[in-house]
Amino acid sequence: MGDPGTKEVLSLAELQASARLRTGRKHVLSLVVQNRPGVLVRISGLFARRGFNINSLSVGPTDDDNKSRITITIDGANHPIDQVTKQLHKLVNVLKIRDLEPEDTVARELALFKVGVENGAGRAEVLQICNIFRGKVVDITKRSLVIEVTGTPEKIEALEEMLLPFGLIEMMRTGEIAISRGRDET
Amino acid sequence: MRAVDAIMECLKAEGVEVVFGYPGGANLPTYDAFVDAGIRHVLVRHEAGGGHAAEGYAKSTGKVAVCLGTSGPGATNLVTPIMDAMMDSVPVVFITGQVRTDLLGTDGFQEADILGITMPAVKHSWMITDPADIPQAIHEAFHVAGSGRPGPVVVDIPTDLSKADIPYEVGDKVPLDLPGYQPKFEGNAKQIRQAARALAAAKRPVLYVGGGAISAGAEAEVRELARVTGFPVTCTLMALGAYPAPDPQWLGMPGMHGTRTANYSLDEADLIFSIGARFDDRITGKLSEFAPNAKFIHLDIDPAEIGKNVPAHIPIVGDAKQVLSKLIPEYESLETEKSRLDEWWERIHAWQTQYPLTYTDSEDSEIKPQFAIRALYEATDGNAIITSDVGQHQMWTAQRYDFKESRTWINSGGLGTMGFGLPAALGAQVGNPDALVVCVTGDGSIQMNIQEMATATQEGLPVKVVIINNGYLGMVRQWQELFWEKRYSHVDLRDVENECPNWGKLADAYGWTGVRLEKKETLVEDLRAALATPGPVMVDLRVAREENTYPMISPGAAARDMVG
Questions:
Q1: Are the beta carbons of A82 and B307 separated by less than 8 Å?
Q2: Spatial separation of the C-alpha atoms in residues B124 and B148, rounded to whole Å
Q3: Which of A20, A49, A114, B475 could link A80 by a cystine bridge, Cβ 3.0 to 4.6 Å?
Q4: Is the predicted pLDDT of residue B179 greater than 50, yes or no?
Q5: What is the pLDDT of residue B300?
Q6: What residue of A is the nearest CA neighbor of B302?
């Protein structure tokens, strides 16, 4: 194509389109937003009307009272990610968006599992599995256990798989939060 | 001072000369402030009329317009103009009254969550929770509405807060706090140079100009680029007039009811330079078959438009005026031969000869609607501000009234809002008191905001309304004829025995002059006489009932498969 600094005529045939890429992988978007009423509605409404499916979304305060952090995971196979981030950027209350590179990111979610252990049956085995997954028992009764575990979605899904046969009563997940590796701010 | 008096001062500081609106319970304090403010207020007869009037004012002048409404139904009546302004990127500040803060969320009388309702339809919105924030919100609203890609904004003010005393003095400089809003204007220099080099390489190029060129005030740059390159030009429905219609490089409008020449040119182009356009489905037809051989240079101030519908090979985010003024000298510095376009122009001229915009005229006195639009062009010498409603008349006008200047064609493009035309004409007349403002409408559309006739009379706005009267909801009838086996369902508006409304009496009732025209032979002079009549005039122009709007890309079809 020649150096852009030259005045040589371009070859149109070699021009490549840059947008509308479907990456085919999961994307973790980390947003800094102004802490104002309605911000979450603006974001979720945008996703709904543009037909973008959110896999998970978590919101929380940051070290600055005026700002909140929103972490959204979205499937890059179904949506052109640049469209999603560009539309988000148009929201006046959105200050910053990062599409986090998986290898430069630490992402975690927290899950709570309530497991039925009628008359103690299986309790020992459940505790053993819990230990392997570095989980913590945060509530115990004669008939149940509540296990707290953090990790990647894959780890949590693996634990769910293991606990299912024991009578999983319910499970709750926070959705991922993510932070970039290294010294720089996310 | 009272917050409402501060609002008036802020409006004056923003250079506001006129406000369109309608009072009610929750905005009584604001209306009290109007008594002494010295700002012109146009009292409309329905909030939707106020919103569209504000759009007509903004579109015809390029200024940010202001529209007021009260809470509840007043605010919900504004939803259509707000969405309309969003779709067509029209800068309007909507200020709505809201119920008292102690009633918020209790389903109070005339309470509606207008911020929630309009969230998908605004560029941004503000809910006032502290009256001291009101001046800042108003100024931010003007900044957001008018800059970057223009659009509508809403400021919702609870009535008790609007009465509060706030520490604001006339002339106070109010700092804006919009860290998340930073439109980019300059355009990347490297991309601009790439674009110039691509233009220099193109053998079958088209300049495809959209409403963004007008928002940016880039008409002169568009014309200069066309002159320097010698490229053919097409303007979307929103950009008619940005490039003068009767011109050797003019292809006509593209899209569903565009010219064959414009559509075929896009179809066979090797390079399409989009300047502030968004490749709407009414332009592209079947997207997967749109311009199959083209590379795209996409210039837009809204990055989200780039790559949204078509691939962008050279994206440029920036203001059309600024970018083009840098791109033109870049192009001129390259060695180009205009003769590389000879074959392309031959092809285009062949299409122009083979497929001119045409129709079969009547053999008697009956007026064909296409004839009516050309007659209007002659009667106005092409020098009017034309507003339109939505439907067949809109397309006939867009096709056949050769617009020479931007901001003289004002219509609802994206949302396609029937009832837009008359109030938009009022707004355009307010903004252009010396211009001839003509609303071309249909007998269906005009009835959707007919109440605004009273506004024209009260305000002394001498707009001329030309009803292309075929007694049908014409575009729907056309689609039923073409795609639903002529099974006409609820499109006939004319009961021959007992015609309703009686347009002449209606004009009388509102203090307008009513004229009925139905003879082809004298139409131009009859129109001239009607347009020269002082005050508002309603022309009931009887046309052939079942005329279709052609040519046409059938819904979902490719541009090259145009019919008619």
A1: yes
A2: 13
A3: A20
A4: yes
A5: 98
A6: A90
